[in-house]
Amino acid sequence: MIHNLNRQSLILAIIVGSLSPTYSHAEGYAFAGLNIDKLNVFWQSSVVDATNLTQGPLRDGTGSQVDLSDFNSTGAGGSSTGMRADLESTHATGTFATCLGPCLKAANDYSRPPSQPTDPLHNVQFVRTNVDANAALFSVSHLTTTVHMHSYAELELNSAATGAPADASSSFEIIRLFSPLNADRMVFDFDADDFMRSIRQVGLPVANVDANNSFEIKLVDNNSNTTVFDFSPNGTGVGGIGATVVADPFDLNNHETVEPPYPSRDLQFSNVGQFRAITPALTPGAFYFLTITAGSAVSAKNVPEPPIAALGLLAVPAVFSFFRMRGSKSKAL
């Protein structure tokens, strides 16, 4: 009887021990960066062939950019806004970045900080976001103009198993309300540089790490509140609303996500190319609401393992039930 109990205890210890997770130092890391350059809007009628990517004010100098004089005087207003959402911005750098408390890094220093958590609650090693933009969407007196938008978000998660979810994001938005004087189509042309990376190292407790970028051009009829044009590049040239897609070389609205059951994974995406899409014919005198949004976001979280004591308690009844069954069969024999 004593021999059987010792044997049962040994097997139980082995089972409970096998349920115990092994913790080691590792990290989750995510970076998302999107650069929109040479964003230019011109009239389709001003070029010979708007489907020819070499034609346009910023390509070969031909064509007419959309100018404020092309609109009714009551329809050309709007604004541009940039937003940053930092969970912990001690390491923020750059022109538009700010620090909470003392700045531990110099401006434009993008090296990784020491491997020491700065936020015990979220076990975040560091989070950094930034957004920058310049120039005007519509030209004034037909002077050449273009828009540049840049956003990035970066996050590194500490290896602590009890880390709460952490995320950071940056975005930029252009809003314009306008009313065209003449019937024509707008051509949106721009270059994009997209980079994302998500890493989960061996030894990191159950974790989800995600990086994503986004970009969209949307035109709404202000009277009917109907979307007449929506271009959200996905690399296929299809799926938009009212858009004649000329160039859509890769996805600007994608994710790179590392998640279980992969013990270790390093996902990366990088591409650069020219995009172009043409709106439907716009009605003279009608009011249209234009929004252009771009952004980058990252998120990471360590999911706590189930408590070991609870797993052990679940294992005990099953083990002793097994031995009771064996004992009953022995008596029957």
Give a short overview.
The chain is mainly β and 333 residues long.
Record the SSE blueprint.
Blueprint (H helix, E strand, L loop, with lengths): L1 H17 L9 E16 L27 E15 L38 E11 L12 E11 L8 E15 L5 E15 L6 E15 L4 E6 L12 E4 L7 E4 L6 E14 L9 E15 L5 H25 L1
Antiparallel strand pairs: 1-4, 1-6, 2-5, 3-4, 5-12, 6-11, 7-8, 7-10, 7-12, 9-11
Helix pairs in contact: 1-2
The main β sheet shows up as: 6 strands, antiparallel
Sheet with the most strands: spatial strand order: 3-4-1-6-11-9
> What's the tally of helices?
2
Taking all Cα atoms into account, the compactness measure Rg is 28 Å
Beta fraction of the residues?
35-45%
Principal-axis shape equals: elongated
Describe this protein with a few key phrases:
333 residues; mainly beta; 6-stranded antiparallel β-sheet; 2 helices; 12 strands; 42% strand; disordered C terminus
Describe this structure in words.
The chain has 333 residues and is mainly beta. The chain has one domain (23-306). It is 13% helix and 42% strand. It contains 2 helices and 12 strands. It has helices at 2-18, 308-332; strands at residues 28-43, 71-85, 124-134, 147-157, 166-180, 186-200, 207-221, 226-231, 244-247, 255-258, 265-278, 288-302. The strands form 2 sheets. It has a 6-stranded antiparallel β-sheet, with no helix packed on it. Strands 2, 5, 7, 8, 10 and 12 form a 6-stranded antiparallel β-sheet that branches. A hairpin with a 4-residue loop joins β7 and β8. α1 runs antiparallel to α2 (308-332). The longest helix has 25 residues, at 308-332. Mean pLDDT is 73; it is low at 5-25, 87-104, 107-124 and 306-333.
